[in-house]
Amino acid sequence: MSRHFATLAGLALALAFVVVFFNGRYEAKPLSVVAPRVGLQVDDLLAMVPRVASQTGATLGTSRRLIYLMACSGVPTSANLEAHARQAADIAEQRRLTPREAATTVLKEMKVAGGATALSDC
Length: 122
Fold this sequence. Notes:
Blueprint (H helix, E strand, L loop, with lengths): L1 H22 L7 H4 L7 H15 L3 H14 L7 H15 L3 H11 L13
Helix pairs in contact: 3-4, 3-5, 4-5, 4-6, 5-6
């Protein structure tokens, strides 16, 4: 009888984990929605990924996530998005931060109204 309770408890715990996992995730926006926020096309953002990765030593995944976050914030312009993404990638690599933490650090330093809270919906 106690084995049945343990089995039910294990299943309930697994179900709770799945529910929390899917409800706690950030809703990712497609690049076609994010790119116009900074006046670029999707292909422009995708072309930045390998450049930022090769210049900073960050992985392609980190570079992709940083460019997405910076563009999603809408704070950088099309002219300086790549430079800010490079800065965030350098910070992520040097301080071993997550892409979100590195992007938040760069946005705070930009001295723009709402820069620090710009990632709230990204």
